[in-house]
Amino acid sequence: MKAPALEFHRPDTVGAAVAILADGGGAARVLAGGQSLVPMLNLRVAFAETLVDIGAIRELATIEDIGDHIRLGACISHARIEDGGADSHCSGMLRHVARNIAYRAVRNRGTVGGSLAHADPAADWPVAMIALGADVEVSGTNGNRKLPVEEFMMDVFTTALQEDEILTGICVPKASPDLRWSFHKMRKKAGAFGEAIAAAVQDPESGFCRVVAGSSAIGGPQRFAMLEKALQEGAVDDDTIRDALTGALGSLGRYETQIHTVCLRRAMEEVRT
Amino acid sequence: MLRREDARFLEGRGRFIGDIDIPGMLDVAFLRSPLAHARIASIDTPVDADGRVFTAADLSDVKLVPPASKVPGHRIVAAPPLALDRTRYVGEIIAACIAPTRAEAEDLVETLAPDFEMLPVIASMDDALSDDGTRLYDDWDNNVSMETGFDSGIDEIIANAPVKVTRVLDMARQAMVPLEGKGVLAYWSERDDQLVVYSSTQSPHQIRTALCEALGLQQRQIRVIAPDVGGGFGYKAILHPEEIIVAALAMKTGRPLRWLEDRFEHLTAGANAREHRYEMTAYADDRGRVLAIDAKLTTDGGAYSVWPHTNGFDAIQASGILTGPYDIGGYRVKTQTVVTNKPPLSPYRAVARPGACFAIECTMDAVARAVGRDPAEVRIDNLVKAEAMPYKAITGKEYDSGDYPACLLRAMEMVAEGPKTPAPGRLLGTGYAIYTEHTAVSTSTISHIGIPMMPGFEQAAALMQPDGSLELRVGVQSHGQGMETTMAQIASQVLGIEPDRVVLRHGDTGLSPFSTGTYASRAIVMTGGAVAAACDKIAVKLREIAAHLMQCEPSNVHLEDGQLRGPTATMTIAEAAETWHFRPYELPEDVLRDGLEVTGGYRPDGDKGPFAYAAHAATVSVDPELGTVELLDYVAVDDCGTRVNPMIVDGQVLGGVVQGIGTGLFEESPFDDQGQPLATTFADYSLPTAAETPIIRLDHSETQSPYTRFGVKGVGEGGAIAPPAAVVNAINDALRPLGAELCAVPATPKRVLGAIFDAQDRAIADLEVSK
Amino acid sequence: MTTLSLTVNGRQVSTEIDPRLNLADFLRERLSLKGTHLGCEHGACGACTVLMDGMPIRSCITMAASCDGVEITTVEGYDQDPLMSRLRKAFREEHALQCGYCTPGMLATAYDIVSRLDRPDEDEIRAELAGCVCRCTGYRGIVRAIKRCIAEKSA
User: Fold this and answer.
1) Is the model's pLDDT at B455 over the cut of 70?
2) Which end of chain A is more exposed for a tag (fewer CB within 10 A), N or C?
3) Mean pLDDT of B170-180
4) How many other C-beta atoms are found inside a 10 Å radius of the C-beta of residue B456?
5) What ipTM was reported for this prediction?
6) Average pLDDT of chain B, as a whole number
7) Residue B393 φ then ψ, to 5°
8) Is the pTM of this model over 0.95?
9) Contact at 8 Å (CB) between B281 and B38?
10) Which residues pair with B602 in a beta bridge?
């Protein structure tokens, strides 16, 4: 269980990193905290001829307050958010999500950007960031672009990143002081990936409302417009949730339907009351 | 007394097998079968692989080491160390690759191109027993490797019993997961004319025996050394194919070779524990007094028989204790061990007893429900009473001593005082389990049940040093049990010298007398007895020396607190030892020619193994919507006779309980219908951690065994026996309002919800019928 | 090969390494610091936990080449650190180890819990320990040892 032979680069600017990726032609991979990628390399279920370690790029390790949003550099660790690094009205939710990812030793290395770019269907940040309406910033040979996390997460372990692109930052909209949020994760034990994750966010001031679920069973994060409407109308019942799940995902096993329904309902009720 | 072994581990100075560097050493990685059942058509190896890649053809001179069994009709197939032309489980070894580092050895593995022809897979007990004609072994007429049975004659009880309760109870397959994987390192030592084999093993002498058989060497030609071992739990008490391969290739290549099991290998090729199914029927009177048990047990034996225990060990052990600590007059059991395309079933901590306890204890709760009584009270009525000891059970086993009802009453009392507040919407339940466990299992017992080559005498060497300090050498291996401390305590008890003047050398065939090793909760009984016997001999010799120096009879010299006291004088042990070593002129020339180095031996009186026992109680909180279970409280009251070191006893019980909680709530090695293991990393194989474990509260009683030195009983395994039963009984207590009952472990959310769904479906069906 | 310069247990190390090496293998095989144990090699058991710039990390899933310029402390590197001395004493007295294989990672994690958190209660301690597997002790001794060091801290 040792990583295969590979080349290693540790550039100190985004431009240099992008250039190496472009050179690599798809055989190069970005290494952020490595808390998902390195285990997969050790198990030899992921491959990379070249690793581009972006941990030395300083601009990716900053948290900035920019007008209507907080910008998290891609290499901000979960632990830094857990410790209150991203202060805003949604920081309670960010801290809650961060604190419940894996274990402190993993959170010290693992990064928000890495989690989004890895796109594990059972990961927490994709669900949380979609629920908060966040955008990601991406840099590549052809310049920079910004897109909603919801569009960035394309499929299981698949994002909108091109071969020569790096996720550089996450922009989380500042919410009002009245923001209400709930994040429910059902898991087999502490630190484990969620069997079912549900997030509900409602900002009465702006009318912003999101209901999102995620897990391997449902193939990654899913927004449920129907439930957002129901939540805003104040009606939350299991039949509606089950209909929403079936509508979005087709048939789901009885167990999976049950745990996602319960997590969604609990999240929505918590926001409502 | 605190543990003497702790200091080196706390400072990172332990010496585990992965820490040993031998100059010129190469690493081994294996090509393992990706398929559960396949014919190996060919293996393409790179042109330059000569001397670096080895397959079965290269080990044709290595002999198979089949375990022996006296069970009539028991079909034994020893695993070839490297698969010949067919692989029978995912993870079976096909080729060995050698390189300067493990990473490069794995690179080499990736260059091999095996070509397989797939064969139909037997992925479960049901597959094995189906009559579709699929066979694991072409020349067998079915897939059953062993069948046993016992019948005390219960037809009359069946005909008259007012209450009949039937349950099918499943315990999943799991992996044992010592935190340090298995490992082996071997090289030929020219100076010693010996193959030196470092192995992460619990049983160095046994491994030496097996390797000699495989390699055609005399026992003097192999030295097996177990360095610090990072947990064993039975996984390291069996012969592993890797031990044979690495030893054989070290001889063939003339290079020191090392293989260290990684976690992926362990969770796939090592998914080899538990997996029992019990079809239990209890016949009882209308107060729940159980009159007879009629049981059928099926175990999934995997593809081969492990050495030395065979794949039938679980079935034999479980059926031999299935009536538990109860006074039950009628017993009928049939067992069948089936072969499947899975790793060979191997003995895991408390071998089979967690399954047997789960079966009888869940059945006991079901009986209590059937008669409308409290499960703990029904148990009290059924338990063997203290005044009935020694008690001959219907299984033929003799329970030596103890007060089982008092033990359960104490557990009830303790759990009643425990936390009882579930979160809103959660269901609360309390469950019990009680067991009795044959520890330090004796030669006659094991031989009787069919495995001829097993424990017997135990020996210890005691070497008094010139300064009066003492070196003990034992053949068992301490890998967490704290024997460096407890054996010193025993020597101290006998000789009166300070424990820190005693050292224990263990786990090395080159240093110690023969031993079958550390397993079966035997070391404190057997090795403790042997250490005491050796120290007794030393004491006689010391008194003889003192008597000469004091001009009195040895019978007038008393050894007390490390002092030799005669009628007129006193001397220290050190003075006596020093006299013999350095001033023999002070002693007559015919005195103590054989010196102060002795071997003492031990076997319990009547060759009887003592029965330890315990009652456990659990309180759980169940989320009926998600199926999640939180353990709020756990209580264990045990009796292992005299406790040599109470702190270490607590540690053994606590560690066992948490492993049992793992079996009960978390740990599972599922396979798909193609025999592919589905829990291959810790992301899927869930181990209990501190966060899942409540404060476990312990209490003890000490009923001395009449048969053992100091009245001790073994305690290494017992903690793991009761938790699956206690936890499931607690869950079922919580689920009562829903009419749901769970009959399988681990009690994952999916299984708990499954039980609730079944109850809902039954309720709906009943409603339909009533319409 | 790639160049790596870092500080390990107070000692400056500059060397060429195979870039595929993880930090644990680098410490064990290149620096002979065998106290860092491998239990799973996928970041899930905690045995290989060491401190990087004072924070616990998993050395099995940290590429050695990513550690340029950092300061690593392994179980061999605490010298007379007063907190580690207290932890070791408490681990011994509370029977917080049996086979000793998880112990180096447990100590690093315990060191972080006691130094980073103010006064965690038992539930918090247990939650913080969730990433560290001990297969022997049942955790009670480990939790008690940490509780004791926290109590000593605030005393």
Assistant:
1) no
2) C
3) 98
4) 16
5) 0.98
6) 96
7) -75, 165
8) yes
9) no
10) B458
Model pLDDT, residue C149:
98
* CA-based nearest residue to B68, from B244, B210, B202: B210
Q: Which of 228-287 (B) contact A at CB < 8 A? A: 262-265
The CA distance from A243 to B258, in Å, is 57
Task: With beta carbons less than 8 A apart as the criterion, state whether B145 and B305 touch.
Answer: yes
Give contacts of B 225-264 with C, CB under 8 A: 228-231, 233, 262-263
Token pair for residue C154?
């605030």
Contact A31 C66 (CB under 8 A): yes
- What the block records as the tokens of A17 is 């990193």
Q: How many helices (H) and strands (E) does chain C have?
A: 5, 5
SS3 call for C12:
strand
**pLDDT number for residue A234:** 87
Cβ contact (<8 Å) for B688 and A5? no
Token representation of residue B350: 């408390």
- Nearest-Cα residue of chain B relative to residue C38: B180
Alpha carbons B483 and B505: distance in angstroms, whole number: 10
What are the tokens at B455? 């424990």
- How far is the CA of B624 from the CAs of A197, B131, B620, B760, in angstroms? 18, 39, 12, 12
Amino acid identity at B378? V
Listed residue (B270, C57, C61, B198) closest to A1, CA to CA? C61
d(CA B29, nearest CA chain A) in Å: 9
B117 interface with C at CB cutoff 8 Å: no
| Of residues A5, A189, A258, nearest to B753 (C-beta) | A258
Q: Checking phi first, is residue B549 left (phi over 0); if not, alpha (psi -120 to 50) or beta?
A: alpha
Residues belonging to chain A with any Cβ–Cβ distance to chain C shorter than 8 Å: 1-8, 10, 31, 34-35, 38-39, 41-43, 51, 53, 55-56, 79, 102-106, 108-109, 189-191
With H, G, I as helix, E, B as strand and everything else as coil, classify residue A66.
strand
In angstroms, the Cα distances linking B241 to B82, B454, B482 are 8, 20, 29
Report the gap between the CA of B710 and the closest CA in chain A (Å). 42
A179-219 confidence digits (pLDDT tens): 999 999 999 999 999 999 999 999 998 999 999 999 999 99
Contact state of B101 with C29 under an 8 Å Cβ cutoff: yes
Q: What pLDDT, in 10s, does the model give residues B655-692?
A: 999 999 999 999 999 999 999 999 999 999 999 999 99
